[in-house]
Amino acid sequence: MKIKVDNISVSRSGQQVLNGLSFELQEGHILSVMGKSGCGKTTLLRVIAGLVTTENGTVAIGGRDVTEVPPQERGAVYLYQEPLLFPHLNVLENLAFGLKIRGENKKSSEDKAFDMLEQLDLAAHANKRSEQLSGGQRQRVAFGRALLVSPAVLLLDEPFSNLDSETRTAMQQLYRKMAHEREITTIFVTHDLKEAVIMGTRLSYMDEGRLLVYNDLKSFSADTRTGMQREIGFWQSFDRK
Amino acid sequence: MRKYAVPIFIVAVLILPFLYLPALSAAGEWKHPSLLPVSWTSGHWKRLFAAHGGIMPVVTVSFLLSGIVALLTTAAGFLLGRLLAGDPGRRQIQAVGYLAYAFSPVIYAYCLQFFFLKAGIGGTFPGVLIVQFLLFFPFSVIYFISYWGRNMMALEELCFTLGASRRAAWMQALLPVSAPALRTAFFQIFVFSWFDFGLTQVIGQGRVSTLSLTVWQYMAEGDPYIAAAGSCLLLLPPAILMLMNEKNIRFRP
Amino acid sequence: MSGGYRSLFYGISLLPLLAGTAYALAYSLGLAGIGAPGFTAGYWALVLQSPETWSSLFLSLAVAFAAVLLAVPAALLPVLFYSELLENPVIRYLLFLPVSVPPLTAAFMGVEWLGTGGMAARFLPGAAGVGMPSLINHYWHTGIIISLTLMSIPFLIILFWQHSRAEKLSGLVELARSLGANRIQVLFCVAVPVLLNRALPQIGLMFVFLFGSYEVPLLLGMQSPRMISVLIAQKFRKFDLADIPHAYVLTVIYAFVVGIIAWLVSRTNRGAA
User: Fold this and answer.
1) Any idea which fold B2-30+37-248 has?
2) What is the ipTM metric for this complex?
3) Measured between beta carbons, which residues in chain B are less than 8 angstroms from residue C209?
4) Do C and B make contact, counting contact as 3+ CB pairs within 8 angstroms?
């Protein structure tokens, strides 16, 4: 679903974290958000999820103003850097959790969860507890759990930052494929330039509490703040040598 | 073996009560300078269960009291800990908690005695229950404020964004996830209450008989054998709880 | 909303203490209680002039200090030098088990073991014949200090063990070694400061508990001087009504001292007890 954020502001301890921030994202797009640490990327995701209240402005998902709507009813799933799995449930139960709390019966929710497990290539781990999984496997379960509830919007807060590069690449591909198939609108916060470009169908940079969304890769790379030119220069320096 | 002489000595001294008290409670005669009892008997245990109407009613009162206090204090601490976890005045809350938590129970009881008498609950079971709740409550809140850290709050938010109502999030995720922490707090407060002597002595005014007070009575009567048997009963539940929960023990000497 | 919950916490935790202390203060100034004479500083003057007050306060502080001073190194020892033993669940259980000894039982053990004809005397070579000096009601309060120290050691072992794991002490020790520190330097410049620094608030709390301990000094202490909790309790229990205001004066003094120590502890606090 389309996301429209209009003029939102959040301040904390006297400091303006988001300052009249506005942007729009069309349905099915993935918006990569880059920016320095502490610039408010996480706060932006939390405002859209309904976990932080904006001081003014509005947030609309699928044309519906959700500014005053509680997180449960927004259809926006927020995923953390750490794949938070429920330690008292096994992998299958973790996946089925979202469906069960929506009142779906045990059999049907576990069937759907098992299908998802197969798509995630985790069917062999259905009965394991979260501590028996690797970081990448845990992250896959967290994704699967979020996808199963068919969210209108997915909010991903540096979800791959703790993974090794191989697992990270595999996860990026998996997520792109699944998001594309399901046409899920996604906001993807990352510090990694390459990852931002691979994942995002739209690119943006956050600075001084505002979000600048670029029209294309060219304009993103032309902005010196994004670090793209520095990165290109670095690799080109090897050619010159 | 010599390498471990020091820790063996420490362990030996520390677990002495667990060896000595059962031995004394079953000793027929054990006078100076014998290192071991001269004879053995089950007489002291029989007396313990028979004297003053038997020890079982007292044990029951103790179990009831400690169980209810632990249940109420744990539940209250868990809820208030959650509500105060993000409070900007956490440091101040902890300072106040420490002050109340560290107060000598017997002096605390004397401070409140007047109010309990005025309210007509001095010398009653509910009175002792309330005074124990008041003293152990700060511990419970401080414990759960630390427990409701970043991870637990994130878990709660995750439930919400997955579509769980507050009730569903609590019933299906937060309470089951918190079961070990709740168990630890429950056991810990149960043990505090089980150990209590000063609060019950003052607020109970001799009309609420707990195991601690009864064992104290045996000690005061100068009957070490029956006092030892009573002490064994006093040691048993905490030792079992300790076995179930050794990694998470907090202290209150 | 949070302010309301904070008030609820203060209401349950602090209000009874404040109300109790306020009543104690009012009583000690002659403003409350049966047959209150009206405002007078007489009780305070008497109590503050009495050597019993000061010797009791000094004794309580000294005993608490001595017990902490003895228990801290005794608990550091197994954690620092025998950490491999603590990895064994059976040994860990044996070391942790004594926290399930109630103060009353610890006091009783003191009576049984530390008296002239007590068990300790029977085990000490030669003492059986000559007779070991009784450490109960001892001039230096040795029996109380020994019992409180032994009671504190298992708590501190658990505390230091938990902190050594949380701070990844073994990693820090290896790091110090790789930087060229010798065993003594590792011990006194890394391991001990790391553990003590982290455990300081809890050691402070332990000091407050020991300062106000009741059951052990009640059974093992001398008639005079008595530790503060025992002194207050005995004054309250006396049938002489004239002693009650004095007990309340001492209660206010005790609350004041604990308040200061708790405030100091909270300033050093970096974690929960």
Assistant:
1) MetI-like fold (1.10.3720)
2) 0.90
3) 102, 252-253
4) yes
